[in-house]
Amino acid sequence: MYRSHVLVCGGTGCTSSGSQRIIERLEKEIKAQGLEEEVGVVKTGCFGLCALGPIMIVYPEGSFYSMVQEDDIPEIVSEHLLKGRVVTRLLYDETTKSDKILPLNETNFYKKQKRVALRNCGVINPENIDEYIGTGGYEALGIVLTQKKPEDVIQILLDSGLRGRGGAGFPTGLKWKFAAANDADQKYVCCNADEGDPGAFMDRSVLEGDPHVVLEAMTIAGYAIGASQGYIYVRAEYPIAVKRLEIAIGQAREYGLLGKDIFGSGFDFDIELRLGAGAFVCGEETALMTSIEGNRGEPRPRPPFPALKGLFQKPTILNNVETYANIPQIIVNGPEWFASMGTEKSKGTKVFALGGKINNTGLVEIPMGTTLREIVEEIGGGVPNGKKFKAAQTGGPSGGCIPAEHFDVPIDYDNLIAIGSMMGSGGLIVMDEDNCMVDIAKFFLEFTVDESCGKCTPCRIGTRRMLEILDKITKGQGTMEDLDKLEELCNHLKTNSLCALGQTAPNPVISTLKYFRDEYIAHIVDKRCPAGVCKALLQYKIDADKCKGCTLCARTCPADAIIGSVKEPHMINPEKCVKCGACMEKCRFGAIYKE
């Protein structure tokens, strides 16, 4: 029995910052101090506050060490673990007060969160099934297989109000009910762990920190619809998640929680992994199933829907990782517990990957109905460097940009759609006054053009035409007629594309045209980028009153575009300037500006 446990984040973010080396050094120093029988080191999943990695928490005190370096380990071991003196200089700033150390759940980042899907992330060792069982894991599966009929399970989900967390928010219980109603000799349960949105890492973090919750939920789903086989479609670019899933599946089989006659109930269910090659279109359910079948990942026309003809033309349900992560707790705690959180039509919590121009980059889980302002200013710590919030992109390439005028709109499925965005899987990218909204729309269209499978003409050709127009506008070559063409193309794609990739591809353009039309007009009419982002419309200039003639800018310029004598004001030759910004970055007197 250990007197202290040291939990170190082993998620992708902290691993990339060197947390594995920190674990190895910790174990070495603990052994050197003779503490290996008293102090246990646990590699966990993501704690959420990714901006401060590598992260380490020492229990029972709950001391939260952030940005830990390998050289800090000897001091932490000798002072804290050996002598019981917390190393306050290494603690997360918000937890340190003059007279006490605050628990983590009282900090701004955590106090408004409600961790349901993420409840075990950063708490247990994801590679140890006993730790999952110790937190109530597989209890829900036991209840279902020994006390509930399949229709009872479906009714619980219907009563809970759980909606799919991977995109449009379709009621989960209803999807399961449709599949259960279709008779077949074989049915399938699939998990979408492909997560292709730029800036999204919610599903990855659940798989890395709590893989058994997905296995348990999929097994429950198999019982509810009458399926005996499950597949987890996970992208190969998630090596830590893949490894932990493989370990978890092996352990579950060993414990008799996957395979034949689970809990002596006569119910058989097993799960296999299928690795995706990173195609964004395979996040669409029919394309994902086509890929599992061994074919090129292209969507199929619907109807028939997967509940009738899905994987291998058999009844199939597909939910994403976060949706499954909620299910065991709904079974154990009851549908009323889950429905008590959130809003009238959007129950429970939602996990967001908070990124972009924000102080606290990381993973947050908040009750549905929390406002964007609360997420950005309170949980996220606001926009860095005193800049103003301009917009937030939700839903990735399929979503839209939410402007400052909707800063206080409660976030749920219906509210986001009403203002021209969507929940999507949960990426939330914050933008400030230095972001050009035309350039943002162009960025997402570039992504969509690259990721379109090309099967249907509206998406294959339409997205490319839209990108060409946006490219013209950012180069100062656009016309007002181009805006009309853009809107016409947007409407055509939404109504004629085969799958959701094409149908939602125009959303970033539609929302920026709606809320930031003045920026489009500035690019077209004034030949000016208000945010100073679009290179073709930029001009770098030198303020003669501020220039000291130090020549540092001239020596830095890679194109010899700056002329002037020592101690005399300099000038920039616009014909030679390559607009790299190196001169402005190096100037110590703030004499160089762009317009």
UniProtKB/TrEMBL annotation:
Residues 538-569, 571-595 form the 4Fe-4S ferredoxin-type domain. Keywords: Iron, Iron-sulfur, Metal-binding. CDD domains: TRX_Fd_family. The keyword Iron-sulfur applies. The keyword Zinc does not apply. InterPro entries: 4Fe4S_Fe-S-bd, 4Fe4S_Fe_S_CS, NADH-UbQ_OxRdtase_51kDa_CS, Nuo51_FMN-bd, Nuop51_4Fe4S-bd, Soluble_ligand-bd. PANTHER family: NADH-QUINONE OXIDOREDUCTASE SUBUNIT F. This is NADH-quinone oxidoreductase subunit NuoF. The lineage of its organism: Bacteria, Bacillati, Bacillota, Clostridia, Lachnospirales. The gene is nuoF.
